Amino acid sequence: MKILGIETSCDETAAAVIEDGCKIVSNIVASQIDIHARYGGIVPEVASRQHILTIIPVVDKAMNEANVTWQDIDGIAVTFGPGLAGSLLVGVNFAKAISLARQLPITGVNHLEAHIYANWLEKGQSPTLPCLCLIVSGGHSDLVLMKGHGQFEKLGRTLDDAAGEAFDKAARILGVGYPGGPAIEQTAKTGIPCLPLPRAWLGNSYNFSFSGLKTALWHLVQREKILADPSMIANTAASFQCAVVDVLATKTIKAAKDLSVQQILLSGGVAANKLLTERFLNSSPVPVLVPPPHLCTDNAAMVASCGYYHFQTGKTSSYDLDVMPSLSLG
Ligand code: KG4
Ligand code: ZN
Per-residue pLDDT tens for 258-298? Predict the structure, then answer.
């Protein structure tokens, strides 16, 4: 069964063809990073206009690289939330138009659920359910128990900034570039995590909070005149990265022990961070699965994989499918 996935929730226009939920036949991502970099963050209006310009070439490329025609496609999966309303609308309306023209079934996919399914796309990796999922992206930091396909129970979430958002803001404070996650990771390589930065443990809850860390970082940078010394910038980036990783790993591993789950699945852009994955792999008592970095960040392969399981369980959408910018999971 071949599914065409479409993803336009934020600043990546992406399309992919996936076979049987796990085999990547083609996977095209057109990033808008260069366009938004000059503003230091995503400008929603610019993002949606760019999706309009890019969606047709991206879908054409995904179909061509997969060497398929519309007759070979069995269904369309499209992200309908959460995300930027104007951006989501482009993907959803495009998917509905193809569905109508080609008489193909359509299913709306939750972007957060799709991130988890990136774990089904890595060869030789097989998630076993139930499992514990940490989704850490630019807009979300959720800890979710996945009981079965389409069955999720939220255990914790961020009370303020998402982990990726914290990386982006820290990078801006340190002036190391955009997007913040890869920039902080790169800068931290030459630094030592020697500076005191706080961790919000929030008692026994599985929730997260990163805004206090961001404020502490800002005060540290002003007080110690960090920006005047490149080696101090590197030490600050390393200390910040260490603080975020510490909280994410400690809380997730505690939840895995409390709930006696057999596997932890990492996903979302921040899961591309090497320190995070190493920390999990070194300290988790249960196996930890993590997609390769290019499948951690936004892509349509994960949307198509998730859509495949929707179709398997008869979960299709009608033409009144609408965008849900604030959609959550579990
Ligand atoms: O999942 P994603 O591509 O988009 C959203 O759904 O938000 O995540 C993007 C986020 C950004 O905040 C970016 O800075 C962060 O993931 N990110 C990273 C790394 N690569 C991307 N954070 C830490 N380390 C990385 N290597
Ligand atoms: Zn995402």
Answer: 999 999 999 999 999 999 999 999 999 999 999 999 999 99
Burial of residue 27, with CB atoms counted within 10 A of its CB: 0-12 exposed, 13-18 middle, 19 or more buried: buried
Give Cα separations from 41 to 38, 295, 313 (angstroms).
8, 21, 38
Report how far residue 249's alpha carbon sits from residue 253's, in angstroms, rounded to the nearest whole number: 6
* Most ligand 1 atoms within 8 A of CB, residue of 9, 42, 137 to mutate: 137
Which residue bears the tokens 């920039």?
183
The SS3 call for residue 174 is helix
Closest-lying ligand to the alpha carbon of 113?
2
Tell me: the pLDDT tens digits for 73-130?
Answer: 999 999 999 999 999 999 999 999 999 999 999 999 999 999 999 999 988 788 999 9
Ligand 1 contacts CB of residue 83 (under 6 A): no
Residue 298 CA, ligand 2 centroid: distance in Å: 5
**How many CA atoms does the CB half-sphere of 63 hold within 13 Å?**
16
- The amino acid present at 60, given as its one-letter code, is D
Question: 130 preceded by cis ω (within 30°)?
Answer: yes
- pTM here? 0.97
Which residues share a beta bridge with 19?
2, 23
Residue nearest to atom 26 of ligand 1 (CA): 273
